[in-house]
Amino acid sequence: EPEVTQTPSHQVTQMGQEVILRCVPISNHLYFYWYRQILGQKVEFLVSFYNNEISEKSEIFDDQFSVERPDGSNFTLKIRSTKLEDSAMYFCASSDGTSDTQYFGPGTRLTVL
Amino acid sequence: RKEVEQDPGPFNVPEGATVAFNCTYSNSASQSFFWYRQDCRKEPKLLMSVYSSGNEDGRFTAQLNRASQYISLLIRDSKLSDSATYLCAVPVGADGLTFGKGTHLIIQP
């Protein structure tokens, strides 16, 4: 069964550093998403991406965040100048667009020290 | 105003019992609803999609009450492996899903 994959599984970084989280969505899917989940809190929507551009973003997704689809398979989330409060699980999800159903990857745990 | 609200539990239920929990949503225009299951420190895994009055898949039944703006999840003949956090999700806006905080379910032997 096709699945969303994410790398790395765990990323540790120093405050102020840039990180890039990588995702490979399900191959025939057209819509891509990033969510985050701070430990003990709910899953929060960050951004959606379709046709090589952002289609929607939340208030959390400020100027320190950016997304990119650098090739036909990868979808990345870049966080510039990380803060302590960016520590969270970051989930990528994808959808084929025929329904609202989104399938999630295993997540990247980001720890900012 | 919270957009998706769930009873956090925990619900402690003996194995074999039936358990149900609800999720209320504020956006009356929502057309689709989702139940995800999340195990500790893992990703949400899709359990059921609900587009009309309800959906059934084996031991799991989801029902939608549009008038009262809630969806419910019923688990029959509960198994130890059903222990998890159950997340309700509703599209709010163009694409993103808004999740509830989840209901924690513990099935006891």
Estimate the strand proportion of chain B.
over 45%
The oligomerization state is heterodimer
* Rounded Rg of chain B: 13 Å
Unreliable runs of chain A:
none
Mean of all residue-level pLDDT scores of chain A: 94
Describe it for me?
The complex is a heterodimer of chains A (113) and B (109). Chain A is mostly beta strands and 113 residues long. Chain A is 0% helix and 50% strand. Chain A contains no helices and 11 strands. Chain A is globular. The termini of chain A are far apart. The model of chain A has no long low-confidence stretch (mean pLDDT 94). Chain B has no helices and 11 strands. Chain B has strands at 4-6, 11-14, 19-25, 33-38, 45-50, 54-57, 60-65, 70-75, 84-91, 97-99, 103-108. In chain B, the strands form 2 sheets. In chain B, strands 2, 4, 5, 9, 10 and 11 form a 6-stranded mixed β-sheet that branches. The model of chain B has no long low-confidence stretch (mean pLDDT 92).
Descriptive terms for the model:
heterodimer; A: 113 residues; mainly beta; seven-stranded mixed beta sheet; four-stranded antiparallel beta sheet; 11 strands; B: 109 residues; six-stranded mixed beta sheet; five-stranded antiparallel beta sheet; 0% helix; 54% strand; globular
